[in-house]
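Re-run with default settings, no changes from the original entry. Doing this only to confirm the output is reproducible before filing.
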Amino acid sequence: MKMGRLLGQGIQRQYYYELVRTGIKVILNEGWRSFFRKANKWLASRTKAVREISLEPPKSDITILKREMVELLRTDSFHNFVIKTNNYCNLHCEHCTNNCDVPISSNNENMFRRKKYELPIEDLILFCERLKGIGESSYHHMLGGEVTMMPPRKVEEIIELLASYHRRMSMQTVGFNLMGLDKNSLNKIDVINLDDHGINHQVIEDCEQYLSKFYRGNISTVVITHHFELTAAMRHPINKGKKCRSWMRELSFIDSIIYPCCNAPWIMLKNNDTVMRDELYRAGWTIHNHELIDTLAHWRETIPQYVIDQCESNCWRPHEDVGQGATRITLKKNDIIKKPESVKSESGIRG
């Protein structure tokens, strides 16, 4: 029977195959005593490595935490995680890399717009467990779609879960139902980014005034009233020449997969296939991989070539250098600026 048949299918199959093969060689050539001596030495080194990874650095020293993440990924810098909470929005802007202007319908030609997506809580728990003690001080940037379009209890559950793992949070919102969320939960978010597209300017002002009464974190207002035509941006990928500023600096977590930058998942929207996701899953870039930390630490060896090629030639983030004039974002007939009768409880407890 071939050695490979003794091992189950999985991401680390080749690793354990080589490990067993090496052990057999030591037994045959050097004897059992040498095998046990080397095995104990290997186990001791592995235990030390696991302890070092699991050891949670002091919460007060953000510099140490960030440096740890940088060293883990063996890259020049690391900035934040992007956590996609859902794929639907109350606004339908053409520039959105989530294709929120494309209606969600079961017979849609775009496979990613056929059904609503919401981050499963069990996936978020597994994400936190796999990276426990790693990158906790880095921002975990929650965005959709529009985060506050999800049921308030679901949003609050996500916030409370990240807080329970001591993970630093930021959230991007167009203000749809921000004032309908529990105040105590909002105060566990370090930064709230209010996204002003011009058509929702009054809501953003209302949210700023509302938050100023109780919110202890930082409020950042981003004004994006114009956009560049996406088709033109696709013809001018920003990563030509391998000059990406987000590569391994912003890891995106979507549908159980870790992507190597903030924009890589949206390339699948353009291609209308799941090849990138499938390649990353097979390579172990998933929360279902028990050795996820090791996979990320050795990203130069584990990242699929397909992903590198796609990011170099197809990254299409809207930007100014596309040779096209800017177009003002306009109100669409199916836009809903804010949730009707949003609850604004002064006590922070919904009635």
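Residues 86 and 118 are 4 Å apart (CA to CA). The beta strands are 80-84, 139-143, 169-173, 191-196, 218-223, 226-227, 250-254, 257-259, 327-328.
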